[in-house]
Fold:
Amino acid sequence: MRLAKYLAHAGVASRRAAERLVADGRVTVEGAVVSDPARDVDESSGVAVDGEPVRPQQRIVYAVNKPAGVVSTSRDTHGRRTVTDLVPTGVRLYPVGRLDADTTGLILLTNDGDLANLLTHPRYEVPKTYRARVRPKPVPDDALRRLRDGVELEDGPTAPARVRQVRPGLLEITLTEGRNRQVRRMCEAVGHPVDELSRIGFGPLRLGDLPEGGRRRLTAAEVERLRAASRPDAS
Structure:
């Protein structure tokens, strides 16, 4: 297995972050610093990061219903509560992508860096579904059409999105992009700023009745469906 992938599978970091660890000279194989993230290694190769041996561990994925005010990082320099605080497993987990502090809903935590990379890499276009409460209501057809066709933002036009008005002023929006505060900026651009925003779906996974602040470990079948959703040929 390639070194960067091995580190990701071991839960050290995502594959891209693992490549940076190698580039920074922090990874050794059999006691020697390596610079090639594609080097073939296995459990017998004596891989270490910062002198600490890397041992394969069981890969796990949790679904979390993030409350407002909780930040989507592993640690916070300002002392705010983080999503990893919601899953006290004793295993080092990190979030798959991010939600704004004031956005609630479904976020995934894992020690599987390879899966995290697949789910967040732009080329795989894994869909994410949000419920947005906007004002004023209802949202007229022309504004809904603009959201579906793509909205011009300061960082370029958005890709087409699936949008429906569940009831007046409550939109369900499915995106395959992951720009910063994208749903909020799109709605603002069509004259309907967001008052409340929650993510209810990530690929084939749905938030369901998971309570706010709650978490549950995904089954092997759910993880495989997530992995399948990140494949380039997934429908």
In short: The longest helix spans residues 220-229. The chain has a mean pLDDT of 92. The first strand starts at residue 27 and ends at 29.
